[in-house]
Specification:
Number of strands: 12
Distance between the termini: 49 Å
Largest sheet: 5 strands, antiparallel
Structural class: alpha+beta
Radius of gyration: 29 Å
């Protein structure tokens, strides 16, 4: 049915764009096969009015013209439905070309290649690459997770999804029912933000922790989609990027480079251990658990207790 409607809309648009004069409803009905097959005048009228509204919503400018004898006709003038020529200066063309090239190694490579060809036609030089001099730096957005493509399509189409997700502190994955909102890349990892139906709240999921296939669900969204989805801010807070306190930990020598990179102070204790002061924000306990026996929390006591609880949960399975 969707294909039939799309074909009907295309035929109507072509008729209106190709006409040299306004066409009446009668003439349009006689020109389009789908309208000829309408069972009655009322059925045709309802179908035509819906189609006309759909085309206008898609951006087609349809004029309504009344003739001298009072008959109503419809026309889509080509000059009213033609976009002005796209002009890009060198910097704009280069920036858009770079954005398209970023996706060449990702699952959007086909779409990016098509967009890049259109940019060439719009002013991006074919034989001049403004980034050629910096060829050693190749911009890429890595997309290795199999979940990326189905989640990208689900975000676009506003379709709920189901997938199995393993948290950092859990031994086994859990099934999650999510209304996907947006995908963002942060420090080389992809994250999905959406409404978790089981928990009744917004959640952010790291794609590398999704196991198995992402399955779509036909029902619509039950929660409103926010105007702004703060994926990076949420993940940054988990990683301790947004923190107003400091935690003191002991770290095995030669281990935990990411923790060392974030530390505000590092002291050698000897016997194969160092002591670090690191920013303490929401989710730091889950991050520290990932380093297992290489990390011991000294203070604060609440962080130490949270890490111990998570380790016990993992040990219990």
């Amino acid at each position: 049915m969707a294909i039939a409607k799309a074909e009907r809309l295309m035929n109507l648009a072509l008729c209106l764009l190709g006409a040299r004069r306004p066409l009446s409803k009668r003439e349009l009905r006689e020109s389009i096969e789908a309208y000829l097959e309408a069972g009655s005048d009322d059925s045709f009228n309802r179908m035509f009015e819906r189609d006309k509204d759909d085309l206008r919503e898609l951006g087609l400018v349809i004029e309504t013209v009344e003739s001298l004898d009072g008959e109503i006709g419809y026309l889509a003038r080509r000059d009213s439905n033609r976009l002005p020529a796209i002009t890009l200066d060198a910097e704009e063309a280069a920036a858009l070309g770079l954005a398209a090239k970023v996706w060449q190694q990702a699952r959007l490579a086909g779409a990016a290649s098509g967009a890049l060809q259109k940019l060439r036609a719009a002013g991006l030089p074919e034989d001049v690459d403004p980034y050629e001099a910096h060829g050693a730096l190749e911009p890429r957005i890595p997309v290795h997770e199999a979940a990326f493509e189905p989640l990208m399509l689900a975000c676009r189409d506003r379709r709920p999804v189901v997938f199995d997700y393993r948290k950092a502190s859990a031994a086994r994955p859990e099934t999650r029912h999510v209304e996907p909102w947006a995908l963002e890349c942060w420090r080389g990892h992809w994250y999905l933000a959406g409404f978790d139906r089981d928990r009744g709240a917004e959640r952010v999921f790291r794609l590398s922790r999704i196991t198995g296939k992402v399955r779509s669900r036909g029902s619509g969204f039950t929660a409103p989609v926010p105007d702004v989805v703060t994926v990076r801010e949420t993940v940054a807070s988990w990683a301790g990027e947004i923190a107003d306190r400091s935690a003191r930990i002991r770290l095995r020598s030669g281990a935990g480079y990411p923790l060392r990179a974030k530390a505000s102070a590092i002291r050698e204790l000897g016997d194969g251990w160092d002591e670090l002061d690191i920013p303490y924000g929401h989710g730091l306990d889950a991050w520290l658990v990932e380093f297992g026996p290489d990390v011991v929390v000294v203070e604060p006591a609440e962080l130490r207790a949270d890490v111990v609880d998570r380790l016990r949960a993992v040990a219990k399975g």
